[in-house]
Amino acid sequence: GQSYPGKPKIIRCRSLEKETFSCWWKPGSDGGLPTNYTLFYSKDSEEKIYQCPDYQTSGPNSCYFDKNHTNPWTTYNITVMATNEIGSNSSDPQYVDVTYIVQPDTPVNLSLETKPSAGVMYLWAKWSPPPLADASSNSHVYHYELRLKTEEKEEWETIPVGVQTQYKVIRLQAGMKYIVQVRCKLDLGEWSEWSSERYIQIPSGQSPPEKPTITKCRSPEKETFTCWWKPGSNGGHRTNYTLLYSKEGEEQVYECPDYRTAGPNSCYFDKKHTSFWTIYNITVKATNEMGSSISDPHYVDVTYIVQPDPPVNVTLELKKPINRKPYLVLTWSPPPLADVRSGWLTLEYELRLKPEEGEEWETIFVGQQTQYKMFSLNPGKKYIVQIHCKPDHHGSWSEWSSEKYIQIPTDFRVKDMIVWIIVGVLSSLICLIMSWTMVLKGYRMIAFILPPVPGPKIKGIDTHLLETGKSEELLSALGCHGFPPTSDCEELLIEYLEVEDSEDQQLMPSHQSGHLSKNAKMTPKETDSDSGRGSCDSPSLLSEKCRESCTLPSTLQTQDVRDAQENKEGKRRWETQCIVSEQKTLPSNSESTKSSTWPAAQLPNNQPPMFAYHSTVDAHKITLNNTNTNVAPFLLGNEEKHQSQYPITETVHDHMEKQREMENLHSKTAQTTVQVMQNRPNDKSPFLNPTLMDYVEVHKVRQDAQPAVLLKHKENSGKTEKYTVPGTSKEYTKVSTVMDHNILVLMPDSRIQHTSVSQEPAKETSQDLQQGQAEKNVSYYLTAPSECKRETSGSDYMDPSSFMPSFK
Amino acid sequence: CHTSGMPTPNGKEYAQKIPREELTHLILKLLQAWKEPLSHFNQHIEHHQELPDDSLSKAKQISNMVHELKTGVEKMQSMGIISNSLHGMESSEAASLSNSNEANMMSDSDFIHCFRRDSNKVQSYLKILKCRIMPENSC
């Protein structure tokens, strides 16, 4: 439908220069009918209403107020009326003061330039004020504003310019492209629009160059020289370098004669321009568009800056003189440029070499000669060698010459090889021999090298010893020629019998069997209670003496006795004297430690004297093996029970007999012992290993008329146990055991069958002993020999008289 | 340097061009010019406590060497080794140079610097002489 028009709206009123102004309105709806717009205004508070003078100039829907109709400082009350057939509508009034609605046009002719100033680039912007329709003389004073930004940035930087139509922007980033705009306004009016954008590229590197530095000056042959410099950091393409120098004593400054010969950033002074013994003052100047800078001065006297080229023509020659080792001769030539021939430049050389795989160079100073002889190189190896040179005074070393490889020929001397072959053969032979020896005689060697550790002295006889039955050997090994011991063996008082009053004493009168083996060697003196004393230690035993003299330990015997003794209170100890024989230790057999066993001279000794029988138990083992001494006699008494005794005897016996003996011994009868004894018929004294045995002077005993003490051969009818100790007039028998405290069992001769003797109350002890001995070892040695010796003196012997009383 | 006034060849070619006698003469002149200043210097540094003992003895040693060198060259000159003709050129200017005060006025470092230079000169000239007279000997 049609209606009256909508209300128009005045959108803006603008003045360009405060002398004219325009208003524009926006029509409302036209109501479907052609609409007519009329603008009415009034000034200030006047009543008069005027109409718009010009609807055209400013375009449609506008009203242009020209100069005549424009009064600044006047408030216009403007309304627009829209009229159509039906009706009209009026806009809201707009109060306009021209002063405040002024907005000029944008400035024009914006021009941009970059200029360097004081080492900095700046942007110079110029423009013109907005043009006016009429170039009136009204000098409108515009205020301008500039804004710029780089292309990447988002935000503008706005700079108030003032009334100037140009401006210099200083804070610019070199190399960036800037966008610049400008606008203006009049007094209190409004800002114009921004002018169109202008672009400007700031050139990069636009600053004076940094100071170059002169790095070095060198003369290769002491006739010319070159100087090099390093540009400063800001040296772009357009930086120009000039080298200036002056000589000592002169004011004149020259420029480098040659920039090219030596490459970029260098200056070459040829012969004409080189003077010696004068100091040059050299500087380099760098110039670019922004300015120039000069390096620090460099003072140089050519005499001191000589650095030659490396030597050339490095050659090797292998010289092989007769009768001498070949050697290498290294030769070289001075660098070509150096004039050594005239003496102007004298060079010294130095070479270095290392094996190809080596890490460190060996440097050798050669001096002024141009050759070098190398003697001490390893044949077959490859070496690397290098040479360098320097002037003999002042100056620096040249670079090293290129690497030269040397291959030392392997000098395969026949002589050397033969020597090595012989050495190899010999050593292999020796190894073979040694291993063979080891194999064959391993044990013995081991024993020789590592002597067996003596075990504890155990009372008792080691059955094993007996078993092995090598008494023969043992005896012979002991050095005694058998039983009975010879005179020197008499003193085999290896052990001393510790006799007590107590029940221990079991002296078995071996009378029955005629064992006069009273060889317990009782040294009266030694009745010390220290039963543990080895015969070695006991003074009475004179062990040393005995030891030395005799080797055969009469282990068996002593053990025997000992057994008997010990059982009881363990006081008696059989002591194996110190090593009587070499060790044939026992371990289990073959070895026989010759231990001299004291005959089980358990003398019933009412006396306190205790004779310590040190265990020869081990001895038994040993002795069994190889003593020939018949310890058997000793075993007489104790045998039966004391297994251990057996071994003792055994040891005494010969090797072969040993076996028998052992068995015998084991038979636990006195007889066995006897047998044992017998087993060594060949021996001198069946059981008297001179060293081992105690010998009782039979006669003494006899004197005492102790029936029990059958020393000598009463009992033994048939067996003489007297070991015929050669040289002794006395007869000695070994006391094998002591029984019942008052029965002295003498050891029979080897052949003697002692039956009775073997009774031995202390059976168990023997067992113990035996066992003990079993494990132990042969390390007990009876110092039979020494004992033997001792025996010569009557004192060493068990004095039957001493225990006589005990006999009953 | 007090010897700066002396005209000496400062390049190889110049040195080679000079006849031997003149070169010898130059050498002797140089050596002579340093005789006095060296002894002066030795006296001077003896009072310097901060110098190590080596320096003092070295300085003495150097002046001795200079003296000996001069004597040697003179001898060679008189024996005719250097030149074919027997010359006994002995110039007085060197002596005067030597005795001049100039040398005494130099600072220690200058003194050493000048001496170093002049000794280098002498050495170079002598080497050239040597290779001229006896070229086969490592020349």
From TrEMBL, chain A:
SUPFAM superfamilies: Fibronectin type III. Its main location: membrane. Pfam families: EpoR_lig-bind, fn3. GO terms for molecular function: cytokine binding; metal ion binding; peptide hormone binding; prolactin receptor activity. Residues 505-516, 767-776 have a biased composition (Polar residues). Keywords: Disulfide bond, Glycoprotein, Membrane, Metal-binding, Receptor, Repeat, Signal, Transmembrane, Transmembrane helix, Zinc. It is found in: Membrane. Belongs to the type I cytokine receptor family. Type 1 subfamily. The box 1 motif is required for JAK interaction and/or activation. This is Prolactin receptor. The gene is Prlr.
TrEMBL record, chain B:
One of its GO terms (molecular function) is hormone activity. SUPFAM superfamilies: 4-helical cytokines. Belongs to the somatotropin/prolactin family. The lineage of its organism: Eukaryota, Metazoa, Chordata, Craniata, Vertebrata. Gene3D superfamilies: 1.20.1250.10. It comes from Crotophaga sulcirostris. Signal peptide: none annotated. Keywords: Hormone, Secreted. InterPro entries: 4_helix_cytokine-like_core, Somatotropin/Prolactin, Somatotropin_CS. GO terms for cellular component: extracellular space. It is found in: Secreted. This is PRL protein. One of its GO terms (biological process) is positive regulation of receptor signaling pathway via JAK-STAT.
